[in-house]
Design a protein that fits this description.
The protein is an alpha+beta fold. It has helices at 3-27, 179-190; strands at residues 52-56, 61-65, 70-72, 82-85, 95-104, 114-121, 124-134, 138-149, 152-163, 194-195.
Length: 197
């Protein structure tokens, strides 16, 4: 037998085997990579008025906030706390600012808080509390949503900080802010809550 012919045949067989092997590998579907642990797949989009999607993988939740809200300093709060400031407040009223503290452990504002019903969102029923405090020139109210999960508590504490309109002369007195509307806005935010693990 001719060695050149034998060598060409061996190359053709090797080439054919390689092509068959490559075709078999290409046809074989590779399983999709598993998502990283605790990485939530969004179950729903945030509504247009609450476009900022906040996810805490360590605490296991996601929530939507207004676009103008930004992270603030959580100094003085328990480790793992988050503060969000920059909420819009109604112009021409005594409401000066609104803030959301999300904190694990305990919330000092609960010491004098009273029960304020419940709210269910994302398969979780939150206990809701209300607390208020006033000084000579200011008022502070807190609407607090409590999530108990795996024996731990997480507090979503919406603080409403206003001036006391009673200290102003009538011509300079700001209009009282609409408290039910502010409570409704906290409910609207909390209704975007979802668990991520």
């Amino acid at each position: 037998m001719n060695t050149t012919l034998l060598s060409k045949s061996a190359r053709n067989i090797t080439l054919a085997s390689t092509l068959l092997l490559m075709a078999g590998c290409a046809a074989q579907k590779k399983p999709a990579p598993a998502p990283p642990p605790h990485h939530p797949a969004p179950t729903s989009q945030c509504p247009a008025n609450l476009p900022k999607h906040i996810v805490s993988l360590t605490q296991g939740y996601a929530i939507c906030l207004p676009a103008n809200v930004h992270a603030g300093s959580a100094s003085g709060l328990p480790a793992g706390s988050f503060v969000y400031t920059g909420f819009s407040v109604p112009a021409g009223t005594n409401l000066e600012r609104k803030q959301l503290n999300i904190q694990p452990g305990s919330d000092d504002n609960l010491q004098s808080a009273t029960p304020f019903g419940h709210l269910t969102a994302g398969g979780v029923t939150f206990q809701r509390m209300k607390e208020g405090d006033a000084g000579a020139g200011h008022r502070e109210e807190h609407i607090i949503y409590i999530w108990t999960h795996a024996g731990k508590k997480l507090y979503f504490d919406f603080g409403l900080y206003s001036v006391n309109p009673g200290v102003f002369d009538p011509p300079n007195r700001p209009k009282e802010f609409n408290e039910p509307a502010q409570v409704h806005s906290t409910e609207e935010i909390m209704r975007t809550f979802s668990r991520v693990h």
